[in-house]
Design a protein that fits this description.
14 helices
């Protein structure tokens, strides 16, 4: 197992390199870069026309947006953003900085990318970890109970609720909760902005914990309602599949209690499929569903920052968050493989070549 983990960690390096290379060339080809946007702001050009020019058109001196500006000013703008260097030199400099975990400084936020990521990370971690934890705490017991009582009234009406939850995207649930409990009706029970209150520093330890979960209640609930359906059905089907196996019939014939058969034998085998979904669940919550939730509840997290950076062509932030997201996703997948061995020690990854 240690050898397998080491190989997977070493494989992360070329994976990150390939992803950075592909996205670097895609971003360079995209119109409306930081140079064009700065020129447009200097000339009072509307944001909609910024994307009509490309980086290469600025270098050729034929950019429509740059007409009337001093060429020396344009060269200074290019130097400020690093576009005075050839493409291959910019790429080599970026890879060298990333090898030292130096993500550079934001073009427009006046801070280093590392500082920005550390500022936004608590919000994304709070949403991702609590939403994933609650999703599993709800889905696994519910899926087991549905499997045990398959075909009963409980199975039917719970399946109806699951289908409704599956049909409702997280952002729609979030807006509904905001309307119901954040002042849209007579109820104003929860805040609709931020991760903590403005007077958070003045609260006691108990008050800080309560305030933290008070602000997280609705965003996390939105993510859980929007994501528990698939996991519940996966758990149920996995248990139903294992219950029909010969070893279960043998265990029952030996006089074992139903609880011991279920949790002593079926649980370990059935949970392999559930554990396999942990990396995808975490990645989905962190990098997909959290963006709209952050916008709706005015949470300043990594998802929102990376989106705004992509729109503004803030390349250091775009590549820095891409690097962190990719690295985190690869580590989560490795953690999922390790969880396999914890659930079923018979699994041995040391025989794999990755």
């Amino acid at each position: 197992m240690p050898g397998y983990i080491l190989r997977r960690l070493l494989l992360i390096i070329p994976t990150l390199l390939c992803i950075l290379l592909v996205n670097f060339f895609i971003v360079q080809a995209a119109p409306g870069g930081p140079v064009e946007q700065t020129i447009a702001r200097l000339q009072g050009v509307s944001g909609g026309s910024v994307g009509s020019t490309s980086v290469e058109s600025v270098h050729s001196g034929q950019s429509r947006a740059s007409r009337g500006l001093d060429p020396k000013l344009i060269e200074e703008i290019e130097r400020q953003y690093g576009f005075d260097k050839p493409l291959h030199e910019r790429l080599w400099l970026m890879l060298g900085h990333y090898a030292r975990l130096d993500f550079g400084n934001s073009f427009f936020r006046g801070a280093s990318v590392t500082e920005l990521i550390m500022q936004k990370l608590p919000v994304s971690l709070s949403l991702g970890l609590w939403a994933t934890l609650l999703t599993y705490l709800v889905s696994i017991p519910l899926g087991i109970r549905k499997a045990v009582r398959h075909g009963s009234h409980f199975d039917v009406w719970s399946s109806t609720l699951i289908i409704i939850g599956y049909a409702l995207p997280a952002f729609l649930v979030a807006m509904l909760l905001v309307v119901l409990f954040c002042g849209g009706t007579a109820l104003h029970w929860f805040p609709v902005r931020g991760l903590v209150s403005e007077n958070f520093a003045e609260l006691s330890l108990t008050g800080k914990i309560a305030d933290y979960f008070w602000h997280l209640a609705l965003p996390v609930t939105s993510l859980v309602i929007g994501g528990f359906a698939a996991l519940t059905l996966l758990t149920k089907n996995a248990f139903l599949n294992e219950v029909t196996r010969q070893y279960v019939t043998t265990a029952r014939a030996k006089g074992m209690s139903e609880r011991r058969v279920l949790y002593g034998h079926v649980f370990r085998n059935a949970m392999l499929l559930v554990v396999a979904g942990i990396p995808q669940a975490l990645i989905t919550v962190f990098f997909s569903g959290a963006l709209l939730i952050e916008v709706i509840f005015s949470l300043d997290g990594l998802g929102r920052m990376s989106y705004e950076a992509a729109v503004a062509r803030d390349y250091p932030v775009v590549f820095g968050t891409l690097f962190i997201f990719t690295l985190f996703g690869l580590l989560i997948k490795l953690a999922g493989d390790i969880c396999y061995t914890l659930v079923d020690p018979r699994i041995d990854f040391s025989a794999r070549t990755v």
